[in-house]
Amino acid sequence: MLFVCLQSALTYRLAKTQGEYYLAHLRLCMTLLAFVGLVLSGVFFCQESFILQHASAIFEWVFCVIIMLFYGTFAFEFASMSGDTMAVLARGRSMGPAGRELKLDTLVGMGGQSHQPETMSIL
């Protein structure tokens, strides 16, 4: 729930277009529904009645389905990533120390400031 709440807040914070605001509203609704389902699941689970414990299990499944749908909303954000983008990102990670030094030399040659290779790996 903490991740879902944080992600909903970040979606609102970073939204620039109307479509992104619609997605933020959708995520907020899903977050609220998931929270209500989780609370009801916990409340009903503590009861002695078999029917209420059964309702608790149903609310637990509702919570899980809503969270999976929430994760599905990330498809809209990552839809523009192509296979070429993934290949470039994967190749950049596998260059090792020599690749970092090459990137460092390129940055210094472009007028950037001189940094140690360890600090460049953070970027």
Strand segment tally: 0
Average pLDDT taken over every residue: 81
Number of helices: 7
Radius of gyration: 23 Å
Order of H and E elements:
HHHHHHH
**Approximate strand percentage:** under 5%
Approximately how much helix is present in the residues?
over 70%
Going by helix content, strand content and strand pairing, the class is mainly alpha
Shape: elongated
Distance between the termini: 29 Å
Largest sheet: none
Low-confidence stretches: 104-108, 114-123
What does this structure look like?
α1 runs antiparallel to α2 and α2 runs antiparallel to α3. The two termini are about 30 Å apart. The longest helix has 28 residues. It contains seven helices and no strands. Belongs to the DRAM/TMEM150 family. It is a multi-pass membrane protein. This is CWH43-like N-terminal domain-containing protein.
